[in-house]
Amino acid sequence: MSYNYYKFTFTDSSYLILCDEQRYTRTESGRNWKRKPDTTESHVYRAEQYQNCVQSVQWFKNVFGARNERAELGYTRAGYLPIKITSVSPDGAEKVVRSFKFAPLNRMEAGAGWRENEILKNAESFEIERYTTDRGSVFSRLTLKTSDSGVTAAGTFDFGRMAWVN
């Protein structure tokens, strides 16, 4: 069964969509992809940007063929959605893999003050740090970064304590 990405809609603004973008080139033999990415970037998407990214899959499939564009669907906090999009350049020299994670904004906004709300509104990139508690539980800290300077340049939300940390 083929999924129609043209009809994909995602308008749920209650999630911050975190996109890891990894770029790969071919090995020296030219037959395989390198195991480690050449570059890695992180982006924070809003619902409209995510929707546009997913809808473009079908267009690239139609123009360049099915082998150049793939999407993997999976279960997320927001439902059964595309979680990974793999694109190969038309000449086959570069591959871009975009992986998506969904962070619930309602939990992040609950304990947010003015500074944190500005960071949430203007976030452009992120870092995720995993840590283990004394009892062995594994949690994540999400650091959001903006292009601002000063107090609204970055902020960290701890999903273990469900609170913003300095």
Describe the structure in your own words.
With about 170 residues, the chain is of the alpha+beta class. It has helices spanning about 45-65, 105-110, 115-120, and strands at about 15-25, 40-45, 70-75, 80-90, 95-105, 125-130, 140-145, 155-160, 165. Strand 4 and strand 5 form a beta hairpin. The protein is globular and about 50 Å long. The mean pLDDT is about 85.
Principal-axis shape: globular
Number of DSSP strand runs: 9
Helix content: 10-25%
Helix vs. strand class: alpha+beta
Number of helices in the DSSP assignment: 3
Spans where pLDDT lies below 50 across 5 or more residues: none
SSE series: EEHEEEHHEEEE
Compute the average pLDDT.
Answer: 87
Offer a concise description of the structure.
The protein is of the alpha+beta class and 166 residues long. The chain has 3 helices and 9 strands, in the order ββαβββααββββ. It has helices at residues 47-64, 105-110, 114-122, and strands at 15-25, 39-45, 69-76, 79-88, 94-104, 125-132, 138-145, 154-158, 163-165.
